[in-house]
Amino acid sequence: MANNSEPKVTPWEVEGIVDYEKLIVEFGVKKLTSRELELTKEAIGELHPLIERGVFYAHRDYDVFLRKYIAGEPTALYTGRGPSGYVHLGHIVPWIFTKWLQDKMGIDLFFEFTDDEKFLYHKEYTLDYVRKITIENILDLISLGFEPKNTHIIVDIDDISYLYELAVRIAKKITFSTIKAVMGFNTSTNIGMIFYPTLQIAVCFLPTELYGEQTHVLIPAAIDQDPYWRLARDIATSLGYPKPTQIHAKFLPGLGIGGKMSSSQPETAIFLVDRPEDARKKIMDAYTGGQPTAELQRRLGGNPDICPVYKYYEILFEPDDDKLRERYNDCRSGNLLCGPCKAALADRVVSFLEKHQEKREAMRDRVEEYYLRNKF
Amino acid sequence: MANNSEPKVTPWEVEGIVDYEKLIVEFGVKKLTSRELELTKEAIGELHPLIERGVFYAHRDYDVFLRKYIAGEPTALYTGRGPSGYVHLGHIVPWIFTKWLQDKMGIDLFFEFTDDEKFLYHKEYTLDYVRKITIENILDLISLGFEPKNTHIIVDIDDISYLYELAVRIAKKITFSTIKAVMGFNTSTNIGMIFYPTLQIAVCFLPTELYGEQTHVLIPAAIDQDPYWRLARDIATSLGYPKPTQIHAKFLPGLGIGGKMSSSQPETAIFLVDRPEDARKKIMDAYTGGQPTAELQRRLGGNPDICPVYKYYEILFEPDDDKLRERYNDCRSGNLLCGPCKAALADRVVSFLEKHQEKREAMRDRVEEYYLRNKF
Questions:
Q1: Nearest CA-CA partner of A229 in A247, A215, A214
Q2: Is A161–B161 a contact, with Cβ atoms under 8 angstroms apart?
Q3: What percentage of residues in chain B have a pLDDT greater than 70?
Q4: B368 and chain A: CB distance < 8 Å anywhere?
Q5: CATH number assigned to the domain with residue range A8-255, chosen from the 4 options 3.40.50.300, 3.40.50.800, 3.30.70.270, 3.40.50.620
Q6: Is B168 in contact with A116 (Cβ distance < 8 A)?
Q7: What is the domain class of A266-362 according to CATH?
Q8: Which of A172, A177, A201, A238 best probes binding to B when mutated, by most B CB atoms within 10 angstroms?
Q9: Which ipTM value was assigned to this complex?
Q10: How far apart are CA B238 and CA B234, in angstroms?
Q11: What is the pTM of this model?
Q12: Dihedral sign of CA atoms A342, A347, A352, A354 in order
């Protein structure tokens, strides 16, 4: 973890303490304002904590998408996952929000698993490994309660026949110079990685092709994916599709000091396949915003603003605003010590994992119901 | 046509008078010798004029392929076509030789139509246009008498599900630097063209995948395609496939001065859809190795070695070696004038076109029988 070096956010690497305000400027996206929150309420009737609490915090034309939805025009949701390893709690943050949008709006979700990308990116990965991980990741996704009738999973290699023609049309619009600049590639990048972005972009336009009418697509995803959408928006009109719109999430922090949760640092992330007791231990060992001793903590109070344990409550494990505020204030005032705060979080995480892992095994036979190829 | 500038031979451009000996050195291939011709006879029992007369003149491991065939190991043929326009007589030279090999050896032919490549390469081409041309080109191919039971046509975009996994495994082995050097790309090349070579390479390994056993593949093709095979051979072993082998053809010259026949110079090429009378006119207007006047020709003789009309006899329209030698000598001695020589060629071409075009229409309903997707 590179706390002292320049933070880095690309689709393949998130390092250091992320400056989310700076990313807005760097990526050229817009901050979500009360206007978009009001419009969400108008479209859907309520707000999800993930948007109300600013976890989803930036966008491109989210307001345009909502207006199209309100006007009754065809709309769809799109997000995805690069199956590079087991799913951790950070990954499911956009999925939970996406599911909420889908439930409220009653529209299709297209979910892409980019097995090709992960095979191409990781020198040591075999296709067998990526395939196995893809299935494991799919189980985590569908166990969150997505409905098969309007949740359509695409696995790039298996479903390439849905994507390749679109990808070729997209590829014709993008030179090596452009992809190099946008994605940070270089001349040693393999030609699969160079082409791959066309497949992530292709799904932005797939609903229009499948429905046979101009369809407005909203992509809820972590902000590191923005380079793809910037490219997609640049070429959409010339290909005859509506520009895809985005709503961007911050990352769930790792349990160490700063940084994103990472498969390469398993002790800093809770994986959905972790044994509950291992997850409990990770949380009890987590870095916090507390003082070095209980006595100091009682006297000076802790700092929830830099505390990953607090962030886990805020982002995933305390839906009640009043209780969250209470926890915040109790930490600040020194009334709440890190030990019990961690233990209570561990209880909730363990309970979540136990239920999730039970559902997960039950879903193993139902994967086929979710594949796009079985429905379109 | 750039007669005075440096000749250029790449998969996308053949310009100037090609120095075939120089290409052998440039591409690092081997010249066919009497040894390989003898081995062909041993394997197949006879020789085709196209190899006996040196139209197929160079190779990579053609001898290895023949030995594998003789030893009874699994073998297959592979060639293809970039559907950028109508098929002309030059295109069918490798096809005729391939069909002969297939007939004699009784093995499968995999034939790739690279619609993606041609769409990606030509700025102004639409997919609809390339699709239409692909079908028209398929008609010309199958009208040459290929058997559907062992001739398997692949159309890249439609059949991408057969190729993409292989392409991704290939792509992981090739950097931008490599593809740039081998194919002559630059940073303004679109990312579809950069990826495309993986699909042309993929078919080299497809028979092994489809048969489920190591299969030795021979590719009869014009020599401009060699860069693909060089790459394919470089990575074959590391991917677990036999190195594909090649036998390289010279080009049928255009009817103008030097150069390849070209769709961009329709007057220099006989297209298989040309009206017979148009073809006759093109031949009667052709450049020849003759003298400026009949009188001079009678006195000094002509030069068949630089004469495209003679080449058409040699390559496609005079199977009889004695008659060909007679024509050569009569030209040299001044006994044969260009007018009657052209007229006799025109008669043969017209007769070929009339029969071909009749068959061609009859084949329109039989295209489906040839698609790989309907058989594997």
A1: A247
A2: yes
A3: 96
A4: no
A5: 3.40.50.620
A6: yes
A7: mainly alpha
A8: A172
A9: 0.95
A10: 8
A11: 0.96
A12: positive
